[in-house]
Design a protein that fits this description.
The structure is a single chain. This protein is of the alpha/beta class. It has 18 helices and five strands. A five-stranded mixed beta sheet has the order 3-2-1-4-5, sandwiched between helices. Strand 2 and strand 3 form a beta hairpin. Helix 2 runs parallel beside helix 3 and helix 6 packs antiparallel against helix 7. The chain binds zinc ion (ZN). Zinc ion (ZN) binds next to helix 14 and helix 15. This is SWIM-type domain-containing protein.
């Protein structure tokens, strides 16, 4: 866990899952994303309660355990210090928010899209806010549009409409709870945190569903731990298998040009697929600020990979489109190979197996040709 966190500490997803253990305590899971888009579990927490002090203890322990690793990384790669941001995805739970904020002052919080919309549905109701069904539907429609705004300007335009059309109770609730933290839940603004385009907590939801498909509900603690570590081992074996696939598999389709081929050699397949889209699409949308190396768009800020707009700039200056400095080091194959545990282990022949030597004979047809 620690080695992976040291290499890929920029984003941490946090979530809790319930009904797994017979004494009815929640399991907290934290995970990160590696540079081939795979998830790695970094911490589990079993809490007897979810009081502020308990959460504080857990995140403090997490900080103690892992800050040494991230500090070591910062020390070695001090130039990347400015882009190292830990983003914590979580439910919209004010307790968690108020615990995490002081403990990780350098962090940006990003609230899961799914949970944001669910909270709006739970709170904005006729009964709770004393509004008519028509007012409720219209307000929720505007708030949903606010959720998907791509920029601050777009958000402000939509916010003006919201203020003129929403009933007083909805405006009060929204201004008090959501407006000032819009960078945490408006999609386009959350991308600026460098969240690798993760707008939801689906990575954790996927792991939690694996837990629930294997572990029966309300299992006793001893059996729960046995099952938990079996699942963890399976998930890691699957990930190691994918890592080997990155080395062994080669594309059968031809590359469009040399630049595309060079980027394929530079990046992991997962990231190359993102970059290939930027290479193949032309976009004339009005972006506020684009140079040959940086852009103000959500894709660039979220992924730290060159976007369509940067490539358009390069085309307009008649340059070739390849420059490895445009891509964050974390997405490169070299970095990936150095960080994967499976590739650090020495190759060991399986027990009982002996090396097989093959004596390759020249093809008969070649021999016949020589005789002729
Ligand atoms: Zn851009």
């Amino acid at each position: 866990m620690k080695e992976e966190f040291q290499a890929f500490s920029e984003m941490v997803c946090a979530d809790a899952t319930y009904k797994l253990i017979d004494i009815k305590i929640p399991l907290y899971v934290l995970l990160i994303e590696d540079d081939n888009g795979r998830s790695e579990i970094t911490a589990f927490g079993l809490f007897v309660n979810e009081q502020r002090e308990t959460l504080e203890w857990f995140f403090n322990k997490y900080k103690e355990c892992y800050l040494a690793c991230s500090m070591t990384r910062v020390f070695i790669t001090d130039k990347s210090l400015s882009i190292i941001i830990i983003i914590i995805f979580l439910y919209l739970d004010m307790k968690e928010r108020t615990v995490i904020k002081p403990l990780f002052p350098q962090c940006r919080l990003v609230i899961c899209l799914f949970h944001t919309l669910r909270t709006f549905n739970l709170v904005i109701t006729c009964e709770k806010l004393g509004i008519t069904p028509d007012e409720r539907d219209r307000s929720k429609g505007i708030i949903e549009k606010l959720r998907y705004c791509k920029s601050e300007r777009e958000y402000q335009d939509m916010y003006t409409i919201f203020l003129s059309e929403a009933p007083h109770a909805v405006k009060n609730y929204f201004i008090k709870n959501w407006h000032d933290i819009r960078e945490e839940w408006v999609t386009g603004l959350a991308f600026n945190s460098g969240n690798f385009l993760n707008a939801t907590n689906n990575r954790l939801e996927s792991f939690n569903s694996k837990l629930k498909s294997v572990i029966p509900i309300f299992l006793n603690l001893s059996d729960f731990f046995k099952q938990l570590f079996v699942i963890l081992k399976c998930v890691r074996s699957e990930r190691d298998n994918k890592t080997i696939g990155v080395i062994q598999k080669h594309p059968t389709k031809k590359f469009k040009n040399d630049d595309e081929y060079k980027y394929y050699k530079l990046l992991t397949p997962y990231e190359f697929n993102y970059l290939k889209q930027s290479l193949s699409i032309t976009d004339n949308s009005n972006v506020l600020c684009t140079t040959l190396t940086v852009c103000s768009c959500g894709f660039f800020n979220s992924m730290k990979l060159p976007c369509i707009h940067i490539f358009n700039k390069w085309i307009s200056t008649n340059n070739c489109l390849y420059d490895e400095k445009l891509c964050d080091k974390r997405w490169t194959r070299n970095y990936y190979y150095m960080s994967q545990t499976i590739l650090k282990e020495p190759l060991m022949p399986c027990e009982g197996e002996t090396p097989v030597f093959v004596d390759v004979q020249p093809k008969i047809s070649k021999i016949i040709n020589k005789i002729i």
